[in-house]
């Protein structure tokens, strides 16, 4: 729990929290979109799971998009997820680099 608090503090300090909230909001909306668009997804939580797995590029294979708009949504989820997680790692590394530089300058 302490590490989660540190991550939240980093996100707030760097201004990355808005991007994080937009990503999480998009995941929830995509979960609903997949429920509507995909015949194999029968429950919202299954759509949310599929959206999360797609955005992290894990792709377990328990669900797959078969409709055109479902596949298009999955492409958007994948691209948005790759951008988000790449930027997140960059923000955290940059935060600790600046922290170390400030410490060295003292």
Tags for this model:
Helix Hairpins, single chain, K_chnl_dom, mainly alpha, membrane, VG_K_chnl, elongated, transmembrane, 106 residues
Please give the structural blueprint.
Elements: H1 2-14, H2 17-37, H3 44-55, H4 68-105
Helix-strand sequence: HHHH
Structural class: mainly alpha
Tally the structural domains: 1
CATH topology tier name? Helix Hairpins
CATH class annotation: Mainly Alpha
Average pLDDT, to the nearest integer? 90
- How far apart lie the N and C ends? 30 Å
Which architecture does the CATH hierarchy give at level 2? Orthogonal Bundle
Rg over CA atoms: 17 Å
The number of helices is: 4
- Major beta sheet summary: none
Please characterize this protein's 3D structure.
The radius of gyration is 17 Å and the shape is elongated. It has one domain: Helix Hairpins (Orthogonal Bundle), CATH 1.10.287.70. About 80% of the residues lie in helices and about 0% in strands. Helix 2 (about 15-35) packs across helix 3 (about 45-55) and helix 2 (about 15-35) runs antiparallel to helix 4. It is mainly α and about 110 residues long. The longest helix is centred in the C-terminal third of the chain and has 38 residues, at about 70-105. Keywords: Ion channel, Ion transport, Membrane, Transmembrane, Transmembrane helix, Transport. This is Two pore domain potassium channel family protein. GO terms for molecular function: voltage-gated potassium channel activity. It is a multi-pass membrane protein.
């Amino acid at each position: 729990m302490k590490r989660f608090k540190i991550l939240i503090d980093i996100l707030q300090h760097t201004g990355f929290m808005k991007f994080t909230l937009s990503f999480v909001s998009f995941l929830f909306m995509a979960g609903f979109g997949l429920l509507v668009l995909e015949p194999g997804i029968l429950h919202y939580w299954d759509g949310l799971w599929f959206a999360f797995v797609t955005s992290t590029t894990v792709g377990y294979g328990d669900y797959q998009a078969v409709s055109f708009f479902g596949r298009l949504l999955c492409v958007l989820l994948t691209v948005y997820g790759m951008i988000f997680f790449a930027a997140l790692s960059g923000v955290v590394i940059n935060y600790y680099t600046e922290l170390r530089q400030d410490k060295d300058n003292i």
